[in-house]
Protein 1
Amino acid sequence: MATRNRTEVTEFFLLGLSSWTEMQPVIFGIVLAMYLVALMGNGLLVIVALSDPKLQTPMYFLLSQLSFIDMFLTTITVPQMLVHTLSVNRIISFNCCIIQLFFFMAVGSMEGHLLAAMAYDRYVAICDPLRYSAIISHRLCLRITLTSWVVVSLNSLLYSVLVTRLTFCGNQVTHFFCDITPLLKLSCTRPVVNEMLIFTEGVAVVVSPFFFILGSYARIGVAIARMHSVAALRKALSTCSSHILVVLLLYGSVIRMYLRPSSSYDLDQDCQIAIFYTVVTPMLNPLIYSLRNQEVKGALRRLFRKLSSQETSNLVPR
């Protein structure tokens, strides 16, 4: 393939799920349904966490931020993928591709930071409950959230700038959105700096929250092992189970997708993982937290009762 200058590449063609041509109408329907469920589920969690008086705690503030991130993450990629699934024109401009890459990496990294903050919240609640209100506050959670946004935005900006400096030998992106790995595959020369960045700075920003979570749960595990009360043990396990499941869903797919050499990239397999990460996980997160959390279920019932009573009052003639 002849080498072309980067400035000649003004747009990319997203191959997407082109290898699944016969299944694309079915895929469209399934992904659209999951996308709508993800938006509605996370939207409800944001509403109840921010409006219900009984959920005005730091933990539920972080949960509302996680739901907002899930809505943002899935919206960055899924609507475009749905349009391209039933369309022949799968072109995205170079600038739009870089913008999508920036937001996807920033929002995806932010999810890990929020889960780390939630793990710290659970650690203090279980290991130092008497000092919980003195340590964990809305102000602390807000500061953690804002600081994390700054860190992940700078990290994502660095990746995006380095991608713009690559020399591309083609414009066919073997993915349904602009992600870092398929873009590196288009580079005419091996992008050593970018790959080193993924395995060094990328590990520090993306994977370090995971190790923080592991450390928090190691301490929580020690505290749970020392509990002599069955009720306290059951409450501690119930408090952590939803969070642990969400962490496994997130980092299982992230580690599989990014922490490996780009030479092992496989279109079909990575598209499946990406769909799981961008659609299935955001859809499952609110279900996990609502089905396994009595406080959230109670807040949802109160919200539906309030909406039902308002609708009834509007129907009554005045």
Protein 2
Amino acid sequence: MEEQNHSSGKELQPRTRAESPGKKSWHSQAYALGAVSNFMSTFLTFPIYKVVFRQQIHAMAVSQAVQQLWHEGPQYFYRGIYPPLLSKTLQGTLLFGTYDSLLCSLSPVGPHSLQHRWAAGLMSGVVEAVALSPFERVQNVLQDGRKQARFPSTVSILKEFNSYGLWGRLSLGYYRGFWPVLLRNSLGSALYFSFKDPIQDGLAEQGLPNWVPALVSGSVNGTITCLVLYPLIVLVANMQSHIGWQSMPSLWASAQDVWDTRGRKVFLIYRGGSLVILRSSVTWGLTTAIHDFLQRRSCSKKELKD
């Protein structure tokens, strides 16, 4: 997050609030914005995500995935949406709120260096993974068409997990596939927050409307980050779709199995990547733009009161 010049009467930019260590009013705004924007973007892009998930599991084309969902019927089209709606709402509060809190702790006075943004993003991704991995686990089981008869609802999955012992609930139940989730979330958050503001600042210098730099920055940065980590996304989907007491393979064995089932071809690993671009562009573009808009309004009102 770069230092912003406040001369010439321009509207305050979001970076300002991170450079004012004594002002905490922006915290609640960041949490609320993250929750609302993530909720809306998740609901709007869920059909895209479900098609992508089927591609990741079955390595099928877009048309085949859509046809499979259509054949199952409209009553199953939004099956599994409640866990991601809840998890993404929580993700918004954790992602932005935790990042800003950690960033101010690491660097109370701006401008914040790339190292500080990277470290704060990495740690916020760790918190996010620990808190939200169980939601993603339930979601991936629900969205696997092969398990609709055995697990028709979220409650049925929770009953299955809770029937295990304490360690089984964690390792085989709620936190199955946790290590790739931790790696994906920590690296993804670090990349997103490291380059989001530099891209936005560069675009803002072109004299574009205030919402355009944030929208483009979030869209481009979120999409690139998602594509870089896409193999981990596929690995997580495959590991978390399994359920039961069967022997759980190691992370390396699971990665090797995904590689072998995709014919050892990179383009099959990235099958569904085109839809990931669309979903990431919409989700991260909207989230970043709304967050930036409300944050600038909060800063402007604070300046008027002062």
Protein 3
Amino acid sequence: MSFQKVGASKVPFIEGTQASVRSQQLLTSTGIGALDALLGGGLPAGAMVAIEEDAGNAYAPYFLRYFLAEGCVHKQSLFVVGSRSEAKDILSNLPAASEGSAPEEPAVAADVDQMKIAWRYETVGKVQSTIGRNTQAQNFDLATKMGSEVIDRCQVTTYPDGQGSSLSYEQLFEKLLASLKTDCHSKVSGGKKNLLRIAIESIGSPLWVDDDGMSKLVKFLLLLKTFLRHSYAVALLTVPSLAMDEKAAHKVHRYCDAVFRLESFSDTDRQAVGAFADAHGLFHIVKLPALHVVSSALPESVDLCFKLKRRRLAIEILHLPPAIGEETDDLTKQFSCSTNISKSKIDF
């Protein structure tokens, strides 16, 4: 005998999605297992996520590539908006799916200094830095580009239409609305369904030409969020928050379901702080989604960092090294056997 909530809608089968164990909604992967875990197991259908760009926008584009690559693997529909770069350039740099476990970096042999201090950490318990180990995300290899034959299997829409075309929120919404209202993406029509992935690069940047751009941006986000709720679609936006004032950034936070911020390190910062030597920046949780649930999922940790390796982008828990002080020169001299030892220390 099965128990089912009266009036609960049936969740359709869509490749690349799974039903949430917490609520009656579809979840899909962002392409990054750790990010799925922070979202509560995946990105809910109808949700909109914002990634606040780092200084120089060196790392935020990788999140868009993972997001689109995940959709290509499952033959989902793609809507790609290029702001700093053309949409076709974004699609041509998607990482290819790798077989088996996630590709690991080649092991580096420990040098003599590391072997000398290894005994000092024997009593320190091992820590687990990875998160999202049991997610449905694919494994992608950044060192290998996805083949065009894989992308061609998907229904792809790009904006703007050509090089040199202007970026307008009103024009973009009209084109998005046409895709969201198609039978395969709409919740109010019948037929076979498919998921639409919307990837927008650097929304809110000065490259958008609308007059009174901030009010147009807010209106666009509000309308997009409304129509996403009635569609089998998800959206991932990168936002140049460093170029916005605090009031504008707050409005973006309000209308997006989840917001994460990237704080990249300079080479000088990484060398000055040993704990950040292998990390490329901090990953801040600004807002987590709470769609059709009482509260958002509780993350394993809020102290997170991101690392861009040769083959993959990783989000990990940030652990500081043990506070074990270095030996001082006075301590070395005290136990030295040299002839300059003071007689006050060892008196024959």
Protein 4
Amino acid sequence: MSAQAQMRALLDQLMGTARDGDETRQRVKFTDDRVCKSHLLDCCPHDILAGTRMDLGECTKIHDLALRADYEIASKERDLFFELDAMDHLESFIAECDRRTELAKKRLAETQEEISAEVSAKAEKVHELNEEIGKLLAKAEQLGAEGNVDESQKILMEVEKVRAKKKEAEEEYRNSMPASSFQQQKLRVCEVCSAYLGLHDNDRRLADHFGGKLHLGFIQIREKLDQLRKTVAEKQEKRNQDRLRRREEREREERLSRRSRSRDRRRRRSRSTSRERRKLSRSRSRDRHRRHRSRSRSHSRGHRRASRDRSAKYKFSRERASREASWDSGRSERGPPDWRLESSNGKMASRRSEEKEAGEI
């Protein structure tokens, strides 16, 4: 990559897609499904293992440092939860790597002769010492490249001690099995990167393996996967707590609203009840008043009727008395009348008086 391309990539990584106003680059957002979420989180295996024996080639999704810068800026304001997609991607990759490791172990078990558990343990000890030597040499080279010579010398002294232990372990392993089978039990599979390691590899070969880009890249991927799992678990727990808190708040609001509605219903019911009571009391008072008025009217009407009857009776008695007086006076003047005539006249007079009284009534 030229210096200009490196400078352009650095500007993209720092400022994002909007650094030069290029609208064509802004058409694809970092939230697009075509963008690699593992690349945004700087853990895509295609980038980490590029140039190694297990180079995966170009990723099928978009890789752009400017989009990564856009994501980093946006993730400071809100949680985008891209870690879940990246975790799924790395889990599938590591699962495939572990599958290849188990397959390689199976092939070695088929090609190599079976040995006893004691001999296998001695061979495993030699392999462990080889790994320790390789890791220490890789660390010493790294410290020497950084200019920390004293620490590098101390690690090299530890390497000499481990070499002595390895020599003793190899002698024990050589003496525990026949010479014909010794050369066949010389390979093992690296648990990290699934590469083959020889039992009799020299220090330079071990240092190159454990300090190489392939082995360190797999270590980086596995560590990033563990970190993503922890981050996803924490965020999911936080989301569950937020969801539970929102549910409790919603339920509390619903309870309060139900209480307020029931209170309002009770108030309306009490108001309607009091209103009905007032109406009932007013109707009862009106009924009592009407009954009282009707009773008073009937009483006055009866009183007037009785007074009229009394006045009519009194008038009738007066008229009768006057008629009787006039009749007595007339009879005394005319002499004794005929009893038939008197009788008929009396009946007629009594009939007239009854008719008159009935008409007055």
